[in-house]
Design goal:
The structure holds two protein chains of two kinds.
Chain A lengths: L4 E14 L2 E14 L3 E5 L6 H8 L7 E6 L2 E2 L5 H11 E4 L11 H12 L3 H14 L15 H14 L4 E5 L7 H16 L3 E5 L3 H4 L4 E6 L2 E7 L6 H6 L1
Parallel strand pairs in A: 3-8, 3-9, 6-7, 7-8
Antiparallel strand pairs in A: 1-2, 1-4, 4-5, 9-10
Chain B lengths: L1 H18 L1 H39 L3 E5 L9 H5 L6 H10 L5 E15 L2 E11 L11 E4 L4 H6 L3 E4 L1 H7 L9 E4 L2 E9 L13 E5 H8 L6 E6 L6 H15 L11 E4 H44 L1 H9 L4 H41 L12 H27 L3 H4 L4
Parallel strand pairs in B: 3-8, 5-7
Antiparallel strand pairs in B: 1-9, 1-10, 2-3, 2-6, 2-9, 4-7, 5-8, 6-7
The chains are: A alpha/beta, B alpha+beta.
The complex binds adenosine-5'-diphosphate and magnesium ion.
The site of magnesium ion (MG) has 2 residues of chain A, from helix 1.
Chain lengths: ~240, ~425
């Protein structure tokens, strides 16, 4: 297998049984993503974007097909091994942030490190560093409900990158944010991409998708388009304006 | 690596309990009731145990009483009443013939003594006639003054040794020696006070006076009198030997045929113990039954609340799993939580029962002297047992909800609102 391949999906099918009805959320998806790619997955609501992300993120398993993550066959892993893979290799950013409301930012960002077995003082150090990277050093001791949407999503980004995973998976990360804060989050992703992470971004907003280097379009669980983004917005240039 | 997640799970459990104080206290209620039951029961029983042990010690573990009646209560009352009295003659014969015992002392007794001192009248006191040798048995130990001597025995002197309770009642200010009291209208001089026989639980043992046997027979009459013989074996190892000799000699003295049953009893503190142990067993069984019941209630309480708690936190659990928590991590977090609730419940019980024990043991005996055996402190081993039980309750109660939570599918749980 190609060394630079980090994700390889072969004929992935995901079926949901809804009583008598069957929903084919993913219909024979085959896909390869290389290390340090920046991919946007687009498609209308219900086209299977979240389902695909769940499978790539090892949160869910396909009904059939094989998935190699970093050369490892995910199919043969049990629950605990999947948890371990999620912990080590994947950083999640969700549309609804999914922070623990009762814990402060540091504690939230520490979570993946806890399950990685990092000691408390080292954990805090790493969490603070990650929060600094997203520009939240002055909000570290606040709890999520005390923060704005953009700030919450930055905490989530800090949490996603604290464990230094190779892949960042973001499912509509700007979906609950206004354009300006959305752009700030996109700048963070750009930075992460530049520092070597593989980024997979789900969105249904065209201008957000334009940040990516490659765009994959889904419809009814199928890939209908997969192309290099030539209309890339150069964030560095934007900054200079 | 496990240790870090475990420590975190514990902190998380504390956090969650503090965030839901009311709910957690409700969950702990059953445990509080259950543990309080166990501790209070154990407290009363251990008090009784100690009181009995003290009483046996006071009576002497190597002492046996040859008596018409059986203390253990195994025989029917009618059968016992139909036995012949042990006569003075038989008593003297037995005492002179015994070779293996350290000591054998005749005892005559009535429970219908009436003591008058000044204008105080004290009725239904046990009056025991015995000889000076009784002072060598544990019951005859002297606190102040002296026991009567063998000259007073032979002279049938009117001297009396007061039991502790009688002394305290008649002479609240102390200083009884040399005073004159009337026992059934006969004047006696107080020469000594016997040591307290142990406990208020067995305070009948202190509600007694000792006078020389001959004086006793003079005052209360010898006609149809029943005697008993206090035999001191010398050591508990000698008990079997001495018992065998006593039995053999008594049968010989009474001319019993080999096929005839003993028409007398040899009572030891041990026979007493067996009689009481039945009662204790019953108390334990009832207590344990009630405790089990309250524990089931306690467990159900925690289980219910833990289920509410995990469903309420479905999303949190989903997030944790998405970020790498394994089943074990979730399992341990929930079990820690239920166990902590149970332990907190146990500690509330400790405080509760300690206060109850202290107040009860300090003030109640003033109203009801019979409960004087209660200790103001809960025994430490009881607290240990209660802690272990509460931990078990917590683990059992947490197991089901924890397993449910550990099996949440992260992809479903994380979308839960
Ligand atoms: N847990 C589920 N049970 C049943 N059907 C589901 C479930 N999750 C998603 N689906 C269905 O699968 C399809 C794809 O859903 P999803 O991946 O969420 O799409 P998107 O994220 O693109 O909006 C939809 O038709 C949706 O109704
Ligand atoms: Mg979606």
């Amino acid at each position: 297998m190609d060394e630079s391949l980090i994700i390889k999906l072969d004929n992935i099918i995901k079926r949901y049984e809804m009583g008598e009805n069957q929903v084919l959320a993913l219909d024979d998806i085959s896909l390869e993503i290389k290390k340090n790619e920046y991919v946007a997955i687009m498609g209308p609501s219900g086209s299977g974007k979240t389902t695909l992300m769940s499978i790539i993120g090892c949160l869910d398993t396909p009904s059939s097909g094989t998935y190699y993550l970093d050369g490892e066959n995910v199919e043969v892993m049990d629950d605990n091994e999947l948890a371990d893979v999620r912990n080590r290799k994947i950083g999640f950013v969700f549309q609804t942030f999914n922070l623990l409301p009762r814990e402060n930012c540091i504690k939230n960002v520490e979570l993946p490190l806890i399950y990685a077995g990092v000691k408390a003082d080292q954990r805090e150090e790493l969490a603070i560093q990650a929060l600094k990277n997203v520009g939240l050093e002055d909000r570290m001791f606040h709890k999520p409900p005390e923060l704005s949407g953009g700030q919450r999503q930055r905490v989530a980004v800090a949490r996603a990158l604290v464990n230094n995973p190779s892949i960042i998976l973001a499912d509509e990360p700007t979906g609950n944010l206004d354009t300006k804060t959305g752009d700030e989050i996109m700048k963070l992703f750009h930075k992460l991409w530049q520092s070597g992470h593989t980024i997979i971004l789900v969105t249904h907003e065209e201008d957000i998708a334009l940040n990516a280097k490659r765009i994959i379009r889904l419809r009814d669980g199928k890939i209908i388009d997969d192309y290099v983004n030539t209309h890339q917005i150069l964030i560095e240039d934007q900054k200079n304006i | 690596m496990k240790i870090i997640a475990t420590k975190e799970a514990f902190l998380q459990a504390i956090h969650s309990i503090r965030a839901n104080t009311l709910r957690s206290s409700l969950a702990a209620l059953g445990v509080v009731i259950g543990i309080t039951f166990v501790i209070l029961m154990g407290w009363v029983l251990s008090g009784l145990d100690k009181a009995m042990e003290d009483s046996f010690k006071a009576m002497g573990t190597d002492v046996m009483y040859v008596d018409k009646f059986d203390w253990a209560g195994g025989k029917s009352w009618k059968e016992l009443r139909n036995r012949p009295n042990i006569t003075l003659d038989q008593t003297e014969k037995l005492i002179s013939r015994l070779t293996s015992a350290e000591l054998a002392v005749p005892v005559a007794r009535t429970n219908r003594g009436k003591i008058v001192y000044g204008n105080q009248v004290y009725e239904n006191i046990a009056i025991q006639g015995t000889t000076s040798q009784f002072s060598l048995t544990p019951s005859g130990t002297i606190d102040s003054g002296r026991f009567f001597n063998d000259i007073e025995d032979r002279m049938a002197s009117n001297v009396v040794v007061l039991g502790w309770k009688v002394y305290q009642t008649l002479f609240p200010n102390g200083n009884s020696i040399g005073s004159t009291i009337k026992i059934n209208n006969v004047k006696y001089t107080v020469i000594g006070v016997a040591t307290k026989q142990g406990t208020t639980f067995a305070d009948f043992m202190d509600n007694i006076v000792y006078i020389p046997l001959k004086s006793f027979l003079g005052t209360f009459g010898k006609y149809r009198r029943n005697f008993s013989i206090c035999v001191k074996a010398g050591s508990t190892d000698q008990l079997d030997n001495v018992r065998a000799e006593v039995e053999g000699q008594m049968r010989m003295i009474r001319n019993l045929k080999p096929w005839e049953e003993n028409n007398f009893s040899i009572n030891e503190t041990k026979t007493f113990e067996t009689a009481v142990s039945t009662i204790r067993t019953i108390v334990w069984v009832v207590g344990i039954g009630m405790t089990l019941l309250s524990f089931i209630v306690g467990i159900i309480g925690i289980v219910n609340i833990m289920f509410v708690s995990i469903y309420e936190r479905t999303k949190e659990i989903g997030i944790r799993k998405a970020l790498g928590a394994k089943r074990y991590d979730i399992l341990i977090q929930i079990i820690f939580e239920s166990t902590t609730i149970a332990i907190i419940g146990a500690f509330i019980s400790f405080v509760l029962t300690s206060v109850v024990a202290y107040i009860t043991a300090t003030f109640l005996p003033k109203l009801i002297p019979q409960v004087g055996f209660l200790s103001p402190m809960i025994p430490l081993d009881l607290l240990g047992i209660a802690t272990v039980i509460s931990i078990m309750v917590g683990i059992i109660a947490g197991l089901l909800p924890a397993m449910r939570a550990a099996n949440f599918e992260p992809v479903v749980a994380i979308r839960y609102e």
